[in-house]
Amino acid sequence: MEAKRLNTVDDLPGYPEERVELINGEIVQRPMARSEHALVQAGISDEVSPFRRKDGPGGWWIMTEISVRYGEHQCPSHDLAGWRKERVPNRPIGIMDIIPDWVCEIISPGHERKDVFHNFLLLQRHGVAYYWVVSPEDKTLIAYEWVEGKYRVVFAMECGSPEDFIKARVPPFEGLEMDLGYIFGQPG
Question: So where are the chain's domains?
Fold first, then answer.
């Protein structure tokens, strides 16, 4: 019996489909973008944009749909990821080899296991300081912080009705109140 060949990051550029990522040595097609996903992704990007604009301490490089290499057989494409400018002073380019300080995944139907389980364990293993999991359908945001080698919940919110949509300070961006109603597409 022939052993299954695991794909590597080097296999990604030659792959005919653009929306792919490398999970456990397997090239996986990313889900098609849905309006709910795009709306939440744009909302979060808008809300954290003041940190993107700031230079030096407190400033961030924040990118959407960015591929990050965590090893030879692991290169997921994150919905949003950020690097503190004080740690990474020059603008990152290409497939990232630098572990992010923050990752945000927006759950896609049919890909819940990857977003909630696989990425959680992968990012925890690599010490990514903050991991957000956001569900457009459930209107939830859970923020984890890496402490002593494992994740702990530092913020959790479920917005079931319009009065639940609040402004909140969510680590690592607690320097700014984020409008969760705006993030989840509620009329202002």
Answer: 32-183
Domain 32-183 part of CATH 3.90.1570.10: yes
Contact 173, 52 (CB under 8 A): no
CB 140 within 8 A of CB 106: no
Rounded CA gap, 63 and 100, in Å?
10
* pLDDT tens per residue across span 120-145: 999 999 999 999 999 999 999 999 99
Nearest to 95 by CA among 187, 178, 22: 22
Q: Is the pTM for the entire model greater than 0.85?
A: yes
- Minimum mean pLDDT among 40-54, 60-74, 153-167, 169-183: which range? 153-167
